[in-house]
Amino acid sequence: MWLISQHFLTIQLRKVKGHSNDKANDQADALAKRGRYSPDPIIINHKFFFRSSLALFNYNHINVIDRNLRKWSNIPIQSRIFNMAMNNSSLSPINYQITYGDIDWTYTKQWINSNPLDMPTSSKLSSIQSNKLKKSTFTYPTGNILQRNYPILYPFGHINCTECSIDEDTNAHIGLCPSHR
């Protein structure tokens, strides 16, 4: 409306059936098809719309985000999370497997997101998810980690698994211990 009033434009609206052999409609269809298959991005001068838009999301002062913001940001956010995981010092025991692609991230995501309960949310599910994340990032409080972080409370020595009481309580044992599943 601002554009129309500022430039004293006269607008005529005319309903045109799609593919009705109308010359203007056919031209618009052809232009849309050319734009769809063009490898070059379509850049719009967003400064032209500064008074008529409620909000424009500008990325790095380069261009305007003209699609669903959540979908647009998902890929950079996922790569940022992955890079943070790659550089996480607690994941150093599996750094080789991460670097050389030995970990199936699809199954890892399915395992972390799996819900063994019938409810979508609950304190028990929160506890289960928390334990999964701690176990997968080597921050689960096993005997060796407790000895490392609290040497006065847990003096050096052999600490058995709290679930099976057979093997030493380490992160490597958690993945193999049937009592932890």
TrEMBL record:
<dbReference type="InterPro" id="IPR012337">
    <property type="entry name" value="RNaseH-like_sf"/>
</dbReference>
<dbReference type="InterPro" id="IPR002156">
    <property type="entry name" value="RNaseH_domain"/>
</dbReference>
<feature type="domain" description="RNase H type-1">
    <location>
        <begin position="1"/>
        <end position="37"/>
    </location>
</feature>
<dbReference type="GO" id="GO:0004523">
    <property type="term" value="F:RNA-DNA hybrid ribonuclease activity"/>
</dbReference>
<dbReference type="GO" id="GO:0003676">
    <property type="term" value="F:nucleic acid binding"/>
</dbReference>
<dbReference type="InterPro" id="IPR036397">
    <property type="entry name" value="RNaseH_sf"/>
</dbReference>
<protein>
    <recommendedName>
        <fullName>RNase H type-1 domain-containing protein</fullName>
    </recommendedName>
</protein>
